[in-house]
Amino acid sequence: MRMPNQEEIPRQAVIVADSFNSRFKPITLDKPRCLLPLANKPLLDYTISHLVDNGFWDLILLSCSHADQIDEHIKETYGGDRRLTIRNMALNSENCESLGDAMRELSVDGVIRGPFVLVTGDLVSNMDIRSAMEAHQSNRARDKDAIMTVILKKVMPGHPTRGQEDDLVVCVDPETNQLLRYQNANSKRFEYELELFNLHDCVDFRYDLMNTYVIICEAHVPTRFGDHFDIQDMESFIKGITGDEELCTETIYMHTLGHSYAARVCNLWTYHSVAHDIMGRWVYPVVPDRPSQDQYIYRGDGVYLSHSAKNYKAQIEKNVIVGPESTLGRESTVSDSVIGTKCEIKSGCVIRNSHIWDEVTIERNCTIDGAVLCSGVTVKEGTVITPDCILSYDTTVGPNITLKRGTRVTAPVRSPHRTESECSNDSEETRCSEDGNSPPSTHEVLGVDHWGQVYESDGEDRVGYCCGIRRVLGDRGDVLLSDSSDSTPVPSEPDQEVGFYGEVLDSFKAGYLIRKDVDGVLIEVNASKHAYNVSVWDQLIHVTRALLEMSGSVAQFRSHAEYFAPLFIKLAGDRQTETVILEEVATWAVEMERVDDVQSILHSLYDLDVLDEGSILAWSRGCEEDIKERIERFVTWLEEADEESSEDD
Predict the structure, then answer these.
(1) How far apart are the first and last CA of the chain?
(2) Which residues lie below 8 Å from residue 632, measured CB to CB, with a gap of 6+?
(3) Could you read off the pLDDT of 605-624 as tens digits, one per residue?
C-alpha cells in the first residue's frame, strides 16, 4: 500500500515513434525513421533497450507513418519476451500531424495509469533515469503543481550532437531547478519581464544545455495538450507553461545529467555524429560488441568486425563497422564508415564517412565519400559518389560517372497499372519518370545502367549530410542539414557573418602589417567569434576567405599564407576541417574568376602543412570539373609522391 504522501514512481514509458517531419526523405518514403539502421541496429531498438535497462516494461508507442512496419518489427523482435508489454497506438496520419496531435490522441485513449516517461523513438543514451525520477518525486513533494521534469544535458554550442532545435536559452531558478523560461536561441533578441526577477531571488540564464527529450510527466500532461489545440510541439508546451506565472500555476522543473550520454538522431548530421560516438565507445555499454548481442569482435580504434565478415586484404582504418556476411575486396580502403549485412565491396574501392546499409553491392574502383546508401543499392564500376548524396532503397547508379554532390536518388515512380518488373524492362529512354519518359540528362547524371530517378525536394525536406559537420562540402549554406525552420545547424545570421568577417579581415590586415604575433591575431578572431555568435565552421570559412581576399596575386598569397599558417594549423588539422578550407578556396576562386590560381594556392597550403595530401586527393575527386582541370598536374604529382612513399615503406 502506498503511503499517503508518497509520490508514485513512473513505470510506464511513452515512445513518440513518429518524427512528424521530412528530414530523412527520400529514405522515409519507404520506412519510418525509427526503424532506420544506426550502426547496424534499428534506432527504435536503442530507445527500447535503454528503457528496459532502466526498468520500464510497459511501453506505449505513438506511431503514424508506416505504423504497420513498426507493428511487424515489434512482433518479430520483442514478441517472445513475456516480461515486456509494448502497445503500438497507430494514429491516423490525416488527423495526426504533430506531437501535439499525438498527445491529444493519448489523452482520450485511457492507457496512461500514472506518471510516465516520455521519450522519442530516435534516442540513443546510457543515462540512468532513476536519478531524474527521484528528482521529480522530490519536486512533487514540495510543489504539487509540478507536472514535468525535463532532463537536460550540458552540451556546449557547436557540439556534433547539438542541433539547431537544441540551441536553447534556459532561465532557471538555481535553488529549486524550476524552469522559468525556455526559448530557442535562434532569436536575435531576448526579452524578460521585470516581474520574473521580483518573483525569484536568484535567476540563472543557461546557454550550455541541450534537451534530451526524455521528460518525466504526470498522468494529466496529455490532457493539458487536449486543452490547447494550438500547441503542436513540446517547445510550445513548455513555453506556454513557463511563460505566464500569474495565469498558469503549474510548474516545470529540470534535471541536469552528469557524464551520461544522451542524443537524438533527429537529422542526418546527428545520424553520422551519434554513429561515430557509438563506434568510439562514448555510449558504453551501448556498443556493437555488447556481450548480449555477440555479433562483433572489437579490434581497437573503433573497428568492429562481424564473426562472419570476410576481409580480402582491404585496409580498414579507424571507426568502422563491418556487418555479418559482408566482404571487402582487395586493395579497398574503408574509414569512418558503417557497412551492413551481406554487402559486397569489390576490389579497389574507397569508402569514407559513409553509411552502407544491407545487401549493397559496390563494384570495382568506386569511391563513396560522405554518402548514405540504403539497402539493396548497386554502385556500378568506376563510380564516384560525392558528399551529401543519398541513394534510397534498391537503386542503381553508374558505371563510370561522378554523382554530383547532394544528389538524392529514389526508386522510379511507377504507374499504379504497371508492375515493377514491367517498369524495369523499359528502355532507357522511357524509364524512371511518372509519365514513362526519362529526361535526356538522366544517363549523364545517374549512368547508363541506372535504376532510379533523381529525387526533387520540395524545400522542407532538403537535407545535407556533410559527414557530421555543418558546412563542409557545400555551396555557402545550401547543403546545410537544414530541412525545416527548426531542424538542424544553420549558418550564422547574415548580419552576424558580415560583421564577423569584417573584423577578421581587419585583424588579418593589421596583424600582417605590424607582423604581430599570430597567436595574438587568433585571440582577436576567437573574441570576435564569440561576440557575433559564429559557429566554428563559419569561423574557418571566414578566416580562409580573409586570407584569400587580402592577396591580390599568387605571390602575395604565398607571403600571407606563410605568416598565417600557424593560425590555420590550430583551427584545422583533420580531414573535415581541411575540406572546409578546400571548398572555400574553390568557391572564392569561381566567384572572383581566379580559377587559374587554385593550383598555386593549394600547393602553397600543402607546402606549409595547412593541408594534407590525403585531404586534397579525397576532395579533388568530387570537386567541380573546372577546378579539377586546373589542379590536375598538382593532383597527379601528389598521387605519384604517395605511391613512391608507399613503395619505400
Answers:
(1) 74
(2) none
(3) 999 999 988 889 888 887 88
